[in-house]
Amino acid sequence: MSELPPCPKCESIYTYEDGALLICPECAHEWSAAETAEDTAEKVYKDANGTILQDGDAVTVIKDLKVKGSSLVVKVGTKVKSIRLIDGDHDIDCKIDGIGPMQLKTQFVKKI
C-alpha cells in the first residue's frame, strides 16, 4: 500500500485519494498530488551565471547596489563570505564588511 502524504492544511494523517485529488476527511481540504510533489521539491538557487549556490559559499557582487534607507552603496566586486540561503524576495542572508547584515538577490552575485 502506498503512503499518502498528510494534509497540508491541518496535518491530518487520514487522507484518501479520490481520482486525481487527495482529500482530508477532517478539514475537507482538497489538493492534487502534483502540488504535494512541488512542495517537497527543494529550491535550487543560482547566481547570475547559472552556477548553483549553497550555504557557506563566497560570492562577488556584480552591480552597484544601493542600500535602502541609507546613503551606503555596495560596490561592484565586493566579496561576501559565508552566505546563507533563505526563502523570500531576497535569497541570500549575509554580512558585508563595512555595511553589516543584509539580504541580497541571487541575480546580482556570482560565485567565487
Task: Please give the structural blueprint.
Layout: E1 16-18, E2 21-23, E3 30-32, H1 33-40, E4 59-61, E5 65-66, E6 73-74, E7 79-80, E8 84-85, E9 92-96, E10 100-104, E11 109-111
Antiparallel strand pairs: 1-2, 2-3, 4-7, 4-11, 5-6, 8-9, 9-10
Largest sheet, in brief, is: 3 strands, antiparallel
Radius of gyration: 20 Å
Specify the CATH architecture of the largest domain.
Roll
Our measurement of the CA-to-CA distance between the termini, rounded to an integer number of angstroms, reads: 48 Å
Instruction: Return the average pLDDT rounded to an integer.
Output: 89
Instruction: Report the helical percentage.
Output: under 10%
Structural class estimated from helices and strands: mainly beta
Order of helices and strands: EEEHEEEEEEEE
Query: Into how many domains do the coordinates divide?
Result: 2
Tell me the number of helical segments per DSSP (H or I, 4 or more residues long).
1
**Percentage beta strand:** 25-35%
Number of separate strands: 11
Unreliable parts: none
Domain Protein YjdM C-terminal: 46-111
Protein name: Protein YjdM
Organism: Hirschia baltica (strain ATCC 49814 / DSM 5838 / IFAM 1418)
InterPro entries: YjdM, YjdM_C, YjdM_N
Give a concise summary.
This protein has 112 residues and is mainly β. It folds into two domains: 1-39, N-terminal domain of TfIIb (Single Sheet), CATH 2.20.25.10; 57-111, SH3 type barrels.
